[in-house]
Amino acid sequence: MKQLKGIKLLLVDDEPTILQFLELGLLNEGFEVTTAPDGMTAVTLAKQIQPHVAVLDVMMPGMDGFEVCRMLKKIGNIAVIMLTAKDEVDDRVKGLTLGADDYMVKPFSFEELLARIHARIRNHFPHLMEEVTAGPFSIDDRRKEISLDRRVLELSPTEYELLKFLLINHGLVLSKALILDKVWGYDFGGDENIVEVYIRSLRDKLNDREHRLIRTIRGAGYRVDFT
């Protein structure tokens, strides 16, 4: 990925050691980082600095992460990654319903968090980047074009949106339900097998007959790998 231009992150966690660890790591990656030890402080700071991405702990005293997420989404176009120590489906559903863009369970690796932050930036703020690249691919969202090794692919509008979503989230497993929501829209009333049809078409156009690029993760969804 090319050089980012002034990306602002807001880190929210009531555990000082976690907050300091993430702050140092993300500052070292070149981000502008602001920290908050609680929900009320986070909301106040978000209004002032208008962060691009908020990394938000769920379990906090006072205002919990769910309420903070809801308020951040009212403030502006803030991509929210929620952190929790509880790997429970109900919590994930609640957070995503309130507008969270991603969800991670503690403990997690810094490298995975960094990958997810980059994915949110590529998805929400492509205009802040000199060039959106993912492995051998280049994404030009203004022209709605994706190039592979500098060759522009011939894609339908839906194929473009699907491949873009897969690429900006490369390395992550994406379920059919999530793909339908993000590419076709939450109100899509068709069969989720439409995803398989379009994946097959993309594989043909990418000469990915052995499924080494777009991998099927049995029972979970799809993942793009560049290795």
UniProtKB/TrEMBL annotation:
<dbReference type="GO" id="GO:0000156">
    <property type="term" value="F:phosphorelay response regulator activity"/>
</dbReference>
<dbReference type="GO" id="GO:0032993">
    <property type="term" value="C:protein-DNA complex"/>
</dbReference>
<dbReference type="Pfam" id="PF00486">
    <property type="entry name" value="Trans_reg_C"/>
</dbReference>
<dbReference type="InterPro" id="IPR039420">
    <property type="entry name" value="WalR-like"/>
</dbReference>
<dbReference type="InterPro" id="IPR001789">
    <property type="entry name" value="Sig_transdc_resp-reg_receiver"/>
</dbReference>
<feature type="domain" description="OmpR/PhoB-type">
    <location>
        <begin position="129"/>
        <end position="226"/>
    </location>
</feature>
<feature type="modified residue" description="4-aspartylphosphate">
    <location>
        <position position="57"/>
    </location>
</feature>
<dbReference type="GO" id="GO:0000976">
    <property type="term" value="F:transcription cis-regulatory region binding"/>
</dbReference>
<feature type="domain" description="Response regulatory">
    <location>
        <begin position="8"/>
        <end position="121"/>
    </location>
</feature>
<dbReference type="GO" id="GO:0005829">
    <property type="term" value="C:cytosol"/>
</dbReference>
<keyword id="KW-0238">DNA-binding</keyword>
<dbReference type="InterPro" id="IPR011006">
    <property type="entry name" value="CheY-like_superfamily"/>
</dbReference>
<keyword id="KW-0805">Transcription regulation</keyword>
<dbReference type="GO" id="GO:0006355">
    <property type="term" value="P:regulation of DNA-templated transcription"/>
</dbReference>
<keyword id="KW-0902">Two-component regulatory system</keyword>
<dbReference type="InterPro" id="IPR036388">
    <property type="entry name" value="WH-like_DNA-bd_sf"/>
</dbReference>
<dbReference type="InterPro" id="IPR001867">
    <property type="entry name" value="OmpR/PhoB-type_DNA-bd"/>
</dbReference>
<dbReference type="Pfam" id="PF00072">
    <property type="entry name" value="Response_reg"/>
</dbReference>
<keyword id="KW-0804">Transcription</keyword>
<feature type="DNA-binding region" description="OmpR/PhoB-type">
    <location>
        <begin position="129"/>
        <end position="226"/>
    </location>
</feature>
<protein>
    <submittedName>
        <fullName>Response regulator transcription factor</fullName>
    </submittedName>
</protein>
<keyword id="KW-0597">Phosphoprotein</keyword>
